[in-house]
User: Which sequence fits this backbone?
């Protein structure tokens, strides 16, 4: 599977472009399959994309176009999905009390999801949060609970053996931020979680980035997604991005290299994040 690199001048340009494509993928999935499943990420770029999506959704509503027109992907316009059929999941979560500002879901709520529920008809029950400390006493228990939530939406089309085996929904698009250490979701360099297989979720009790307790999808689960989109902005990511595009870099060193989608794997990076890439590593 070839990785594709999409470069942007800055973080804002990247977030706007990814948000537009994200909405288009959701709209198309609802059209084709009757529902759409998106996996969200935390982090600066991940939340920036949701902020940008919120602006696009509002702009489209204020444009006065009707639902059929909004579903069309025409240049300059953002297609908008039928929100009642969209489901949101997470690639990882910080195991904290519900509503804590550091939780990825809380940040996503503030950026986009609350508004979709209040104004656009997204059912609250379509927001599939990873457990909080009220519901899981340990990361392992959180991983088990989220696996059960995912299994309730297992895709019965069974066009992917691994997806069927792990009892996962069809993830139409899965966003991943990349940390300065190369981590994705809560899969950190050198950790046992990198090699956990045969299950869809894993607990991390000693994350090098606070808070220490986290729940994450595994690489087995990530690789069932149709589209895996890395979203990376900022100078502090430049070294990790360059390592990720160096031949032979191991998953143990830069976990992001292990994140590959079924149909596509796209790295969206801004100029700062790509500043240490060489022509040789990208084939430019
Ligand atoms: O802790 C986390 O960090 C990563 C990356 O965050 P960033 O702010 O450096 O972009 C994020 O993708 C992940 O979901 C999150 O839990």
Assistant:
């Amino acid at each position: 599977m070839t990785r594709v690199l999409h470069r942007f001048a800055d973080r804002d340009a990247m977030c706007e472009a990814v948000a537009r494509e994200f909405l288009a993928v959701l709209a198309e999935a609802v059209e084709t399959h009757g529902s759409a499943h998106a996996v969200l990420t935390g982090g600066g770029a991940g939340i920036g994309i949701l902020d940008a999506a919120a602006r696009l959704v509002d702009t489209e509503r204020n444009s006065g176009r009707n639902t059929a027109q909004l579903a069309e992907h025409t240049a300059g316009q953002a297609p908008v999905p039928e929100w009642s059929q969209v489901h949101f999941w997470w690639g990882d979560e910080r195991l904290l009390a519900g509503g804590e500002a550091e939780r990825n879901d809380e940040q996503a709520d503030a950026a986009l999801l609350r508004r979709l529920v209040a104004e656009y008809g997204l059912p609250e029950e379509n927001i599939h949060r990873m457990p909080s400390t009220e519901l899981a006493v340990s990361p392992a228990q959180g991983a088990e609970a989220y696996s059960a939530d995912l299994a309730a939406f297992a895709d019965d089309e069974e066009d992917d053996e691994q997806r069927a085996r792990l009892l996962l929904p069809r993830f139409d698009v899965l966003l991943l931020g990349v940390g300065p250490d190369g981590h994705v979701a809560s899969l950190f360099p050198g950790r046992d979680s990198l090699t956990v297989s045969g299950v869809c979720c894993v607990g991390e009790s000693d994350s090098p980035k606070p808070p220490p307790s986290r729940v994450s999808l595994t690489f087995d689960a990530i690789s069932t997604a149709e589209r895996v989109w890395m979203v990376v902005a900022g100078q502090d990511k430049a070294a990790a991005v360059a390592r990720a595009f160096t031949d032979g870099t191991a998953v143990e060193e830069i976990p992001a290299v292990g994140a590959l989608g079924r149909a596509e794997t796209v790295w969206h990076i801004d100029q700062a994040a790509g500043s240490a890439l060489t022509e040789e590593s990208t084939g430019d």
In short: The chain has nine helices and nine strands. Residues 41-46, 92, 94, 104, 177, 179, 185-186, 209 surround LXAUTJHC (CB under 6 Å).
